[in-house]
Amino acid sequence: MATQTHFTPELLAYARETSLRDDPVLADLRDLNAQLPGGPSLQVMAEEGQLLSLLVRLTGATRVLEIGTFTGYSTLCMARALPPGGQIVTCELNPKWIDIAQGYWDRAGVTDRVDTHVGDALATLERLREEGADNTFDLAFVDADKARYAQYYEAALALVRPGGLIVLDNTLFFGRVADPTALDADTQAVRDLNKLLRDDDRVDLAMLVMADGITLARKRTT
After folding, report:
1. What is the pLDDT of residues 179-190, one digit of tens each?
2. pLDDT at 47 over 80
3. β-bridge partners, 199
4. How many other CB atoms sit within 10 Å of the CB of residue 23?
5. Mean pLDDT of 164-193
6. Number of Cβ within a 10 Å radius of residue 102
7. Is pLDDT above 70 for 195?
8. 212 touches 167 (CB < 8 A)
């Protein structure tokens, strides 16, 4: 039985060479993020962006929810995968990241597909629910502050339709979830979420051991 392959830099480079479909807009945005404080850890890997694009297409999504925009890399990947008339609702606390993202969305020609909400994400999610948006999203991507991950998950579960998909990033949290000496609030919040997800019979579940851990939770129809 095969076990988890250890990805050396050489093997990762090979995987990128043979599977990554890149373009100048995405590459330029990655280069910019690499220069920002904390940028490399806040942006999804290029491979994850491509996976998100594929998941949007696989689910036939026309309406996507994103919690945590940063400079809009994942937003761009998912927006490109939407069919005509599709929309991604993205939530970001810091307006300066949206200002950066806007230029890249314009370059990629997806601005008309992006509905940006700046401010506290939980307040935005509550407002969406009050406006009757429960069960209207096909896919949700959660990549925001870890302390409130369980709350984001619960809101996303209400907003995503039965049969829809929730994608949660950083569920291995730099390996700290398996380190008994890591007792900070963010790490514990991710541990708590992972336990919640494991035992939650409202969803079908798989954790992908790639990038920083990507958990897929499909909202059950019955």
Report:
1. 999 999 999 999
2. yes
3. none
4. 9
5. 97
6. 15
7. yes
8. no
pLDDT at 1: 53
Nearest to 153, CA basis, from 111, 197, 204: 197
- DSSP-based three-state secondary structure for 132: coil
pLDDT (tens digit per residue) in 91-104: 999 999 999 999 99
Token pair belonging to 113: 């597909």
And the tokens for 131?
Answer: 């406006």
pLDDT value of position 4: 84
What kind and span of H or E run contains 218?
strand 214-219
- Does residue 79 sit in helix, strand or coil? helix
CB within 8 A of 104, min separation 6: which ones? 25, 28, 29, 71, 72, 73, 76
pTM assigned to the model? 0.96
117: tokens are 């909400």
The amino acid present at 35, given as its one-letter code, is: Q
Residue found under tokens 């790490």: 187
- Beta strand pairing call for 114-118 and 160-169: unpaired
